[in-house]
């Protein structure tokens, strides 16, 4: 078999250590060594347990391009700045220039909600770490509000500024004093509460929950009207500035064994709970609502990639159009308090829009080339393979100090899988499959008919490979020399494929909501149909046999499921808020890991119980793989972050961040080259391009006030002239 093309290999072995000039103190004293940071004292963020560096104090690092899906964004009351959540960080930017002016560091989970106090002196932030943090406008940290027992989903200041209210997945609404002291707790909701908003008069608030209801509560915690009529969890509530209307939106989907799906609606209500106009025009979940300052128009944004403009009588007056279909999904909206435009947050993008579409050249958008789609840990060696959107495959050591790059394809790599003996690496791109040895040499190649290839699987003996494409419903089987058969199994995209350990069964899953089992014969040259399993909760995105052959795990729209090899159902694992994209079994077959579009990373027992919940990504998590000893996992996501995590402690042991290079791919595909940067705990570059570091990263140093100072990498290292930062390998 002839390889489809040759490869060019680049190896980086600790040759790109950050080497900014460091001078010794004038006294001639020897430079001080940096020391590992105390995990209990360091600032949370990208760098795990940042080192104690003499002359610097507490610090962190942050990618300058947006890494997350921006789901909360707010103008300051005077409109001169805006704040939004980007993973664990809160970023503050100047409205006119869009320049970064402040970063708030403290949350250990993803930021979910923000709100400025009416006088603009305080900013409240909520996160998945179950806390609320108060910050002065200049970035000085204030009280940390603790009391919720699950993710805090919403925060809102009373218009008079005398109370802060919060909602949580724990089903409660809590009031807080401006000094952070706790107030009343409202426990009247019967399901997780997703968001809230105060009436401009400050005497009542509205909260939406997952039980399809909007409930009105008085400022002293007394129940008011219950607003029914939505289908699916409530996703947005906003009072008009004049207080005459309450707008609410929903998902349009009720989960369960028999899911109900309808076109979601925006509904208007009077403050006393009387139903007003119903606005229909979206086909998928409504994400955000925003009123114009004069209360005469309402904007709704949904996952159907549309933003619609409504009058108070419920008539649609316009549709906001954006140029880029890949970034026009809007999660958050806020109207400027003075001018007739609004700011939106989306997939790694922040931009201004008017009723006629986007305005101005300024926008914050992550350049293409940062997404990570797949990762696989070599089952026999200390090697981790990462699929690149720029057509490359990176092979890392697990400490991310050594990197080998294979120039594999001219289109994005969608999957990489090590052979069971660890000596070969299979990879697929849009229309081809290639196999590499551990030296990075292309030893096999096969064309694949159809659309984008999606998944790969090896047999346990390494003698056969299966590949599936995302359209056409086709499965391809190969041995070491040729394609031995291909067949069409699904009436939609195929998302996953896996062999049983004894290679007598093959399972495939797809967008038609089916799992299909197949009996293989004659050394995989023949087959017969097996069980066909229909699941109720939408597409099936991932599937994998357990190493001992006792279970099949599958990932769905809001669940993970276990099946016996004969097709009988096992435990159903609910609780995901978005699709389970990837699965991987622990080598002993007694637990498996899930990576989800909702950013979560979790480990499950085979009885369906949660074993470990690990730090999430700040955008959909698309890759997960166990280490050979089953004690660690490596994960990757659309935030461009690659991490090795200790499962028992949840500690991040190593991190690399993929950012867009200045170069584009040499192919008709709108992707930039990916430039990976890995760091030690002193913030030094272990692997990567130093010029890319300077343009794509900032360092954050805590000042005596507690506020963070933003520095370029070169500025950061010049802050510690007495520290020895020239040898990254001298310390752990």
UniProtKB/TrEMBL annotation:
SMART domains in alphabetical order: WD40
Tree of life domain: Bacteria
Ranges occupied by WD repeats: 104-136, 145-177, 186-220, 279-320, 365-397, 487-528, 573-605, 614-655
Signal peptide coordinates: 1-28
Matches recorded under InterPro entries: WD40/YVTN_repeat-like_dom_sf (IPR015943), WD40_repeat_CS (IPR019775), WD40_repeat_dom_sf (IPR036322), WD40_rpt (IPR001680)
UniProt keywords, alphabetically: Repeat, Signal, WD repeat
Protein name: Translocation protein TolB
Organism: Symmachiella dynata
């Amino acid at each position: 078999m002839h390889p489809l093309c040759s490869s060019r290999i680049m190896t980086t072995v600790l040759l790109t250590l950050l080497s900014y000039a460091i001078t010794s103190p004038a006294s001639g004293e020897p430079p001080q060594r940096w020391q590992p940071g105390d995990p209990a004292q360091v600032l949370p963020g990208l760098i795990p347990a940042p080192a104690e560096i003499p002359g610097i104090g507490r610090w962190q690092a942050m990618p300058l391009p947006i890494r997350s899906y921006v789901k909360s964004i707010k103008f300051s009351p005077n409109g001169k700045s805006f704040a939004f959540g980007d993973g664990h960080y809160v970023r503050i930017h100047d409205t006119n220039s869009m320049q970064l002016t402040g970063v708030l560091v403290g949350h250990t989970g993803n930021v979910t909600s923000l709100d400025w106090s009416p006088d603009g002196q305080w900013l409240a932030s909520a996160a998945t770490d179950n806390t609320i943090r108060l910050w002065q406008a200049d970035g000085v940290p204030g009280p940390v509000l603790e009391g919720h027992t699950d993710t805090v989903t919403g925060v809102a200041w009373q218009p008079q500024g005398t109370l802060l209210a919060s909602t949580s997945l724990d089903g409660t609404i809590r009031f807080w004093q401006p000094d952070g002291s706790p107030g009343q707790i409202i426990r009247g909701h019967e399901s997780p509460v997703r968001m809230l908003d105060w009436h401009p008069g400050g005497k009542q608030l509205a909260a939406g929950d997952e039980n399809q209801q909007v409930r009105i509560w008085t400022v002293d915690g007394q129940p008011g009207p219950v607003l029914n009529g939505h289908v699916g969890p409530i996703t947005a509530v906003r009072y008009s500035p004049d207080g005459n209307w309450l707008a609410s939106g929903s998902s349009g989907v009720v989960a369960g064994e028999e899911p109900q799906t309808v076109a979601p609606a925006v509904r208007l209500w009077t403050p006393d709970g009387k139903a007003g106009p119903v606005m229909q025009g979206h086909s998928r979940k409504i994400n955000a609502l925003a009123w114009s300052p004069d209360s005469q128009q309402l904007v709704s944004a949904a996952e159907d990639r549309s933003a619609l403009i409504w009058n108070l009588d419920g008539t649609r007056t316009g549709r906001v159009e954006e140029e880029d279909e890949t970034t026009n999904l809007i999660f958050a909206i806020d109207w400027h308090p003075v001018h007739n435009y609004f700011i939106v947050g989306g997939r790694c993008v922040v931009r201004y829009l008017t009723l006629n579409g986007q305005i101005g050249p300024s926008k914050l958008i992550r350049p293409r080339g940062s997404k990570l789609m797949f990762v696989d840990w070599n089952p026999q060696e200390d090697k981790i393979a990462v699929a690149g959107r720029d057509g490359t495959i990176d092979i890392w050591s697990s400490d991310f100090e050594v990197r080998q790059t294979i120039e594999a394809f001219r289109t994005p790599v969608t999957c990489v899988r090590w052979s069971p003996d660890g000596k070969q690496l299979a990879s697929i791109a849009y229309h081809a499959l290639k196999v590499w040895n551990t030296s990075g040499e292309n030893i096999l190649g096969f064309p694949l008919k159809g659309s984008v290839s999606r998944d790969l699987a090896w047999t346990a003996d390494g003698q056969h490979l299966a590949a599936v494409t995302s359209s056409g419903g086709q499965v391809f089987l190969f041995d070491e020399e040729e394609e031995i058969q291909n067949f069409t199994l699904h009436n939609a995209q195929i998302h996953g494929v896996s062999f049983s350990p004894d290679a007598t069964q093959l399972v495939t899953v797809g967008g038609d909501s089916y799992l299909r089992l197949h009996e293989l014969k004659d050394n995989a040259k023949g087959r017969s149909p097996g069980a066909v399993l229909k699941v109720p909760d939408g597409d099936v995105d991932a599937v994998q046999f357990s190493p001992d052959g006792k279970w099949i795990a599958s990932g769905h729209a809001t669940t993970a499921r276990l099946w016996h090899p004969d097709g009988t159902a096992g435990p159903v694992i609910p609780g995901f808020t978005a699709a389970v994209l990837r699965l991987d079994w622990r080598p002993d077959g007694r637990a498996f890991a899930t990576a989800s579009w909702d950013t979560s990373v979790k480990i499950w027992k085979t009885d369906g119980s949660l074993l470990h919940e690990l730090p999430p990504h700040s955008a959909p998590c698309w890759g997960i793989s166990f280490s050979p000893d089953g004690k660690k996992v490596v994960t990757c996501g659309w935030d461009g972050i690659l991490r090795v995590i200790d499962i028992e402690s949840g500690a991040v042991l190593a991190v690399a961040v993929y950012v867009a290079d200045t170069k584009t791919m040499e192919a008709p595909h709108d992707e930039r080259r990916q430039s990976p940067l890995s760091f030690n705990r002193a913030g030094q570059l272990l692997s990567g391009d130093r010029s890319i570091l300077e343009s794509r990263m900032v360092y954050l140093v805590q000042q005596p006030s507690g506020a963070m100072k933003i520095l370029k990498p070169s500025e950061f290292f010049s802050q510690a002239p007495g520290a020895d930062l020239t040898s990254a390998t001298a310390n752990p």
